[in-house]
């Protein structure tokens, strides 16, 4: 299974593609950060972001897209831009008929490190180990995007196994 | 000048097209509400919204789009959906090279009623009078979209007049 993880943002949007199955080593396909010009208007920046995400989908042809769930509770001034960027990410994927899953930051932290309150450094370290990289992907948004993709493969795999077990038990 | 006003939302997105110039009676071109199925996932709903907004742009060919500015300060659970919907509205317009303006709710209320704290009923009443309608457009989201378009025409017109006056004074 090939998954594109997206850590949405207007200034920096992390994107990472991971391939693999539960119980087997996962493989990094590509990772990067989409930046949009801070001097431009939000609508223009969203158009940049849309084109860049479309290019990633076109190039890597993932089977699913995992997007970080944005919450309103943070009073940070960037939260609206992040929410708008996440809307663009979702629409780009859904338009192509791809399944889109939203994972919360604590789900992702728990999945890759076993601790829902892990810090950025811990997440980066675990992503590095899981994908057998030489160094943690920089910036943190890139590592977060990979962590999202890893979470999606693992959680999806676990769900499939449970469903298979239930089906077997039902027979 | 023809302006499409958009009051973004996932459950109800108000859309209203107004035509006219400052100092002359404005004309209602079309008004409506885009609804997306509550039972569907957010990515699917955003795709519905995108298609519907694109259809409005295609049919009415506005010269500018005015979108209500969304703020994070409200703790309402719908604010993220509203922000995502506003992102879609902006991207649909910007992709076509149309200028997009964001107006705050109090700017809109002040422009149409003279009172930045006017309630929904007052805004509906003023929209009805300004566009010489028989009754206030329903639901409130539809009236709000028209109020946004009216605000945009009036504010833009005022700005142009000031610029012209300054230019004349400079000569």
From TrEMBL, chains A, B:
Show the active-site residues. Answer: 7, 68, 141
Its biological purpose is as follows:
The RuvA-RuvB-RuvC complex processes Holliday junction (HJ) DNA during genetic recombination and DNA repair. Endonuclease that resolves HJ intermediates. Cleaves cruciform DNA by making single-stranded nicks across the HJ at symmetrical positions within the homologous arms, yielding a 5'-phosphate and a 3'-hydroxyl group; requires a central core of homology in the junction. The consensus cleavage sequence is 5'-(A/T)TT(C/G)-3'. Cleavage occurs on the 3'-side of the TT dinucleotide at the point of strand exchange.
Against InterPro entries, the record matches this protein to: RNaseH-like_sf (IPR012337), RNaseH_sf (IPR036397), X-over_junc_endoDNase_Mg_BS (IPR020563), X-over_junc_endoDNase_RuvC (IPR002176)
Family label: Belongs to the RuvC family.
Which organism was this protein described from? Nocardioides flavescens
Give the UniProt subcellular location, in the record's own words: Cytoplasm
Names of required cofactors: Mg(2+)
Reaction it catalyzes? Endonucleolytic cleavage at a junction such as a reciprocal single-stranded crossover between two homologous DNA duplexes (Holliday junction)
Top-level taxon of origin: Bacteria
Q: What is the name listed in the Swiss-Prot or TrEMBL entry for this protein?
A: Crossover junction endodeoxyribonuclease RuvC
Cofactor details (free text):
Binds 2 Mg(2+) ion per subunit.
Classification from the root reads: Bacteria, Bacillati, Actinomycetota, Actinomycetes, Propionibacteriales
Q: What class of enzyme is it?
A: hydrolase
Pfam (any one): RuvC
Any single GO CC term annotated in Swiss-Prot or TrEMBL for this entry: cytoplasm
């Amino acid at each position: 299974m090939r998954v594109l993880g997206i850590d949405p943002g207007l200034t920096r949007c992390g994107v990472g593609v991971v391939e693999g199955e539960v119980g087997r080593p996962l493989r990094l396909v590509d990772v990067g950060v989409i930046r949009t010009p801070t001097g431009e208007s939000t609508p223009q920046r969203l158009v940049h972001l849309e084109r860049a995400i479309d290019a990633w989908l076109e190039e890597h042809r993932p089977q699913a897209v995992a997007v970080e769930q944005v919450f309103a509770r943070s009073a940070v001034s960037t939260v609206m831009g992040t929410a708008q960027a996440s809307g663009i990410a979702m629409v780009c994927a859904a338009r192509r008929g791809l399944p889109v899953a939203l994972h919360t930051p604590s789900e992702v932290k728990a999945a890759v490190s076993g601790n829902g309150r892990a810090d950025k450094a811990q997440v980066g370290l675990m992503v590095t180990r899981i994908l057998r990289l030489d160094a943690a992907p920089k910036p943190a948004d890139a590592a977060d995007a990979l962590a999202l993709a890893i979470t999606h493969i693992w959680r999806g795999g676990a769900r499939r196994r449970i469903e298979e077990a239930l089906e077997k038990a039902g027979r």
